[in-house]
Each structure stands twice: as structure tokens, then as C-alpha cells.
Design goal:
The protein is mainly α. About 70% of the residues lie in helices and about 0% in strands.
Amino acid sequence: MLQKFGEKFTDMFKKTMPDSFVFALILTLITGLSAILFLESTLLEILESWYKGFWGLLEFGMQITLIVVTGYSIALASSTDKLLSKISEKISSPLQVYLTVIVLGVLLSMISWGMVIIVAVLARELALRVKGINYPFLIACTYLSFTSWVTGLSSSIPLLINTQDNFLIKQGVLDQVISTSLTLGSSLNFIIIFIYVFIVPLIVFLLIPKSSKNKELKDLIIEDQQDVKISIKDEAFLYRSKENILSDKLNHSKILQISIFIMGLSYLIYYFSSNGFDLNLNIMIFIFIILGLVLHQTPKRYAISMKRASNNVYGIIFQFPFYAGIMGIVMYTGLGEAFSNWIASNASISTFPYYSYLIGGIVNFAIPSGGGEFAVIGPSLIEAAKQLSVSLPPDQAYNYISRIALSMAYGESLTNLLQPFFLLIVLPVMGSGTRIEARDVMGYLVVPFVILFILESLLILYLPI
């Protein structure tokens, strides 16, 4: 039954869902019109807000680009290829591939959502080595596994409200941090983790398509874009001069590269000994860079690997400013705050956590960034939560506020399954050399979205705080 639904939704998305860039353009117009209709904003105000926000995700966009490129570079190393070969020898059936990808992805994403790139690399390699893989479905599995990040160590909203002198404290919205023991350590979060670790793989198992005809990776690779046959080591050798010259010695120097690797490794030891297991995007990118240096051994080999890994990140580079522009309209016209205030005004103390969940999910279409979204609508939601919980003892009030923040985070994360923005992380790796688009993948995510939406809704509505 679920298989048929998955295939029907996939066919529907192929016919109706435009490219992710077109999705961003349409969403820009919808957001602008909403500001005109509901806030009576002028066209000039919208244009100024749009332009002001256009550059708001440049740092985030570069982080995403680097995590994709540096992660893929590691995958291109010969030692990585040998490791993947050993893994694939133990994984010989499509079912094993799907379940390995979803379980590993869920677990790694709970450490850091950036680790989905590792899962994407493994999934692509397994698809090349194991017959019978429905490749668009495998991409969907990889992307689905990524949504568990909201329950783990890189969950942006719980981490933000637990940060000293965060913007809510500076604005006077909160008078102290809210410990992650009330959010990530809550019974609600542990139940959600259980769902991702045990229920989501079951959903995947029930959704596995019966046929992979014309959908295996080997069928989808474009003939003139086959994976490069020459090794990075051999290509680096082609750059050598016939003469024994200094520039070649530097370009192919293992000592030089190992020296920088030792510097990087030394800093990583210092960082983790000083900060504990604080695995943010910047430190993950740094780890990937340092690991890539040692795996590729010489500057020339590493440069070649980065060139190959960069071939398919154009989507991230040019689309991020448009999503940032949408965020600018929502933020600077006051549309996001007005929407959340309107919802909050119609809520009670028992229903407000669920309303926050819905708000997080809806606003995510316009601001597909947990931290960015919380910066826009977080203050108004927390203020409303404080007013609703004013009659509660202080401990219970902070428990209530933490439920509001966590509920919003769950909503924001879940609707990523219907929003192709973060698929830009997975597709540069898994879609490289193919014509696979978001519409080929997103249909498989509708059923998991519906099931997870129902389960999370029931938990947020009825699980005691």
C-alpha cells in the first residue's frame, strides 16, 4: 500500500514540481504579495527588504559549499575508495543498502547535520556497486535521514537558547539561558529520537519500490559525464615537468602537506580539549579539510580532488541569495512576527506548543534555516509563551518555554521534507553526472512526512510537559 502511495506521489511531483530555483522565485513572489496583502507594505519597502536580506546567507552558503566540496574530496581519495569497497562487500542487496543509509544517516545527523554529506558519498558508492538500487529512492532515504539533526548535538534552536548572552537575553525576552536538559534532554526529544532510529527505517522498508528498472545509477549517468576514469594520482603526475624543477617539488611535496596536517591536527586536539564535543559547521569543515590533506598526500593531488568535487555545487552558490532575499522580506517587513503574533493570539496554554510547531513548519518554507527562522519569529513566540505561563511556578514556566522552542524546531525540521532547499546539500554529490532533479526525489518523502507529522503532532499535543 505505502509503495503505491510513494510511486503516485513521485509521479505527481515529476509533473508538478519545478526546479528548486523556480521554487525559490515563486516563493519570493508569494512572500512579497503576502506582505502587501496582510501588512499593507509598499512595493519599495518589499524591494528594500528583499535586497537587504539578499546577502544574509552568504556565510551560511559558503559553509554549505565547503562542507559539500571538502566532504566529497575525502570520498575521492584512494584510501576512501578501498574502505568503501570493503563495506560494499558486506552489503550485497538493495534492502541492506536502503537500511544502512537510513540508519547510519539518522545516527550521524544527530551528531551534526553536516555529516549527511558522508552518507551521501557512501550511498552513491553503494549504488555503483550493488545491483537493483532505485537511485532516486536512495537519494530520498539519504535526505530523509538528515532530518534527525533536530534531535541531536547540532540542533540550532536548543543550542541557541542555551548560549550565554544570546540575542533573546540581550533583548530582554529571556533573563537566563534554557539548559539543553529541558530541550534535547527532555522525554519528548527522546521519544522523537526513538521514532527516527526505529520507526523511520520501518517506513523506508515499507516504501521500497518494487522496481528499479531504468532507475539504477548506471542508467541515469549521462554518457558524456561518466565518472573520471584516471586516478587523481595519475592526473597529478601529468602535471610534472620533464625537468627536475623546484615548482614541481613544491607542488608534489608530501612533507609540506603533512606539516600543515600536523598544524591542523594540533589545533583540533586543543579545540576539543577546551570546548568539549562542540561540533559546529566551521569545525566540521576544518576537520574535512585537514583529513583531505592527509588522504591526498600532496598539494597537487588535493587541488585536483577539490576541482573534481566542485563540479556540481553551482546550485548552492546562486540559489542561496534568493532564499536569503525571501528571509529578508519576512524579517524586515515584519511579516514573520505578525504571522506568529496572530497565531499566538488565538492560542491557549495547552494548544500553543502545537501552534508553535505549525508556525515553525510554515515559516520554514520562506526561511529554511533553523537559526534564521528563530531570529525572526522566536522573540514573539517566547514572549507569548511567557504571558501564557505567567501563572505557573518558575520551573514549570521554563519547561513550558522550552517546549515552545523545541516544538518550533521540530516543525521547522520536518517541512524540509517538502522544501527542496537542503536537498542542495545531497544532490551535488549523489546527482553528479546525472540529470536527477528535486522532482525525481521529493515524491518519495511525502508519506514519511505525513506519518512523522501525525506522530509528532500527537506527542506535542498530549505528552505532558
